[in-house]
Amino acid sequence: MILLRSLILSASVAVLAVLSNAAPAPSVFDNIEPTIDTQHESFLAETTAPGLESNPGNPVTLTDACGVLAITEPRNLKYRHVIDCYNSIPFDSAQAATSLATVLTIFQDYYVFTDSALARTAPTPFVNATQNIVGELEKIGRGKYTSDYKFHNDILTAITGLGDGHAAYSIRVYKDEGQRGSEDCIVETINGQAALSYLRTYAKNIFGLSHDTNARLNFMLASQTYNTDTGHYIDSPGMFSERSTVPEGPHLEYRLKCPNLKETVELREEWIIFPTHEIAFTDAASYVENVCIAPPEPIAPPAEGGVVRRRDGPIHRITKRAGPETSPPPTGPQFLGADVLVTGNASVFYHLKDQPNTGVLVCHTFMPSDPEAEKDVILDGLTAFHAKNVTNILFDFQGNTGGSIDLSAFLVQMLFPNKHPLDAAFPSDIRITEPLQELARLSFDTEGISYFSARDFINLANGTSTYENNELFDKPTTLTRNGRSSLWTEKTSLNIPPVASKYMTAAASFPWTAKAENIRILTDGRCGSACGMASYFWTTIHNVSAYAVGGTRGEDLSMFSFAGASVLQLDQLQSFYKAANITSPLTDLAYKNTITFSWLEMYGKNRTTPLEYDAELYRPKHRLDFTPENARSREVLWKEVAAAAWK
Ligand SMILES: *[C@@H]1O[C@H](CO)[C@@H](O)[C@H](O)[C@H]1NC(C)=O
Ligand SMILES: *[C@@H]1O[C@H](CO)[C@@H](O)[C@H](O)[C@H]1NC(C)=O
Ligand SMILES: *[C@@H]1O[C@H](CO)[C@@H](O)[C@H](O)[C@H]1NC(C)=O
Ligand SMILES: *[C@@H]1O[C@H](CO)[C@@H](O)[C@H](O)[C@H]1NC(C)=O
Ligand SMILES: *[C@@H]1O[C@H](CO)[C@@H](O)[C@H](O)[C@H]1NC(C)=O
Ligand SMILES: *[C@@H]1O[C@H](CO)[C@@H](O)[C@H](O)[C@H]1NC(C)=O
Ligand SMILES: *[C@@H]1O[C@H](CO)[C@@H](O)[C@H](O)[C@H]1NC(C)=O
């Protein structure tokens, strides 16, 4: 899994980053749900359009498409304003050649999954899809382009595009903000195609978040998201209906079949455009200058301990929308049957009233502002559960796309304390090239230059301590995967600090500690990165059962997505080379693009396939389907799982 952050955004979308599909103002259509039959539901949605201030006035060339975009009132912005501006940006072949060379080098020499992605088949729940990223990029290099936008869009597609399997869906309306009463209507077609096949194609061409079609569906469709500001779950439209890249056309057409109507309903929903930042421009040239070519941003020095421990959320995360709130923030408790005991910035502890021996630990992210403070929240929450005589704990991981590996390893150990110091560590390796070895040598001698210092990694062949020489990088081995040979380090591990004794002492007193039968996981597959790592430990190593909800009825669904890698941004890598006084083999990109790529891959214990591609480890023990009730209320879903788990 790689994340390419805002390549297309800055080449094209950055000023008007969020496009949302909705009806013409003032009424706004919202949210549609897919279902294979009356019992199966997943959800997708559309969203509202706030009024926004217009661009600051500037002299504008009216014949220039970007000039028109600049002077158009946000509320009058149409799809064509955006696409016309993007299409008018001329293709610069020298700049494109540089960008492509850099992207190609990253995927040839640095990205850890280039070889694994060449696999032709995969066990369920993954789909069979060969992704030859180097070949795709080389093909782009041979292409003839006239449009800058098309060029960058093709790179994005090559990177996020994964093959897809077969799946069958129909869709339903989850929520209609236009208040036209379309809730629970079945969506028969989208843009004249069977709704199922339309979504399938969309997932295939646009989605790179998971190797599993059904997990991708859950990312695409509407869901409920915990809002840390209000402490309530709110409806999220999903990535099909809220986009940060230009949609396939100016509007979506839906044909609905509603339960109480004989006639079908036809809706034509225009995309609504939300400017997310204001940057002044007057024409295509100043658009490129001010939006695409940004001033260099300061790069953070290596994190303490030298190793990046987080894998950021997916590229598709939508920034907070500008504009007024449509409804006042809710107050008071959201659920009548679940008391909130403790709330942190990453976790919330609910106590089920009519199943008082059950506590629900919602962990909606592993990226709180202060992971250390969150550890105390977790201790407080578990202590509160204990005080209420809770014996069973349900983890709700839906929508947790990861964050701090430390925090995730901490949570694993709070439930299953390590017996051995490396129990919560993943065997890992790193792809090696000569320029990287040079960087590693200097990093070994001088502290704080880069993440590539052997001193920060565990020497697995030598007990539990870190390397005291540079053999990790200096003595690589050749691995051939799917016909492609590369140099790799031997197996090592990130150096995750032990959990402080105050936490372990408390954990030893809890009745559920190290008891798989008292713990369950609830996931919709949108549990990424560090969340996937925690899920792996609990399910594979500690035998905890998981319930995976959504996807397609009767089909498998991954418990988690894009697990098992640590990521780096191109800018960070460049700053490492700079700190070491070595010329980087990579040229900086001309545009304000960030390429984020996996540089360290992890494996399940005793496994030979990297965790990212080890499909067998993604299968849950139990499957659940969304219903109109449980999709709209977490409380209903929690009670369903608790009843099934602890009869
Ligand atoms: C993937 O390929 C294997 C081997 O050809 C096959 O058994 C399996 O059914 C395929 N899976 C899918 C989802 O098509
Ligand atoms: C949660 O975030 C708020 C706002 O950023 C901060 O004031 C508070 O200290 C944080 N709490 C924890 C436990 O990190
Ligand atoms: C927990 O159980 C103990 C022992 O049975 C009992 O005394 C106590 O009242 C219970 N606490 C709550 C909050 O139910
Ligand atoms: C292995 O560990 C011991 C101490 O535990 C240390 O003295 C030795 O240098 C280490 N060897 C390597 C190659 O890191
Ligand atoms: C794992 O859990 C299942 C119940 O889900 C139980 O039947 C099985 O015995 C457990 N296996 C081990 C090795 O504890
Ligand atoms: C890089 O060069 C600067 C300036 O000459 C120097 O201060 C620094 O120590 C050098 N860094 C390394 C790792 O050699
Ligand atoms: C891995 O292999 C070792 C040695 O055979 C064994 O002791 C250990 O239990 C295995 N771990 C897992 C998770 O299979």
What's the topology here?
Blueprint: E1 3-5, H1 7-13, E2 18-21, E3 32-34, H2 65-71, H3 79-88, H4 93-110, H5 133-142, H6 148-160, E4 171-173, E5 186-190, E6 193-194, H7 195-206, H8 213-220, E7 223-227, E8 232-236, E9 242-243, E10 251-257, E11 265-274, H9 284-292, E12 338-343, E13 347-352, E14 358-363, H10 371-387, E15 392-396, H11 405-415, E16 428-432, H12 434-445, E17 457-458, H13 471-474, E18 477-481, E19 484-488, E20 493-494, H14 501-508, E21 519-523, H15 530-541, E22 545-549, E23 565-569, H16 570-579, E24 594-602, E25 622-624, H17 634-645
Protein structure class:
alpha+beta
Number of domains: 3
User: What would you report as the Rg, rounded to the nearest angstrom?
Assistant: 25 Å
Query: Alpha-carbon distance between the termini?
Result: 38 Å
How many helix segments?
17
Bulk shape: globular
Pfam families: PDZ_CPAF_rel
Protein name: CPAF-like PDZ domain-containing protein
Keywords: Signal
Organism: Linnemannia gamsii
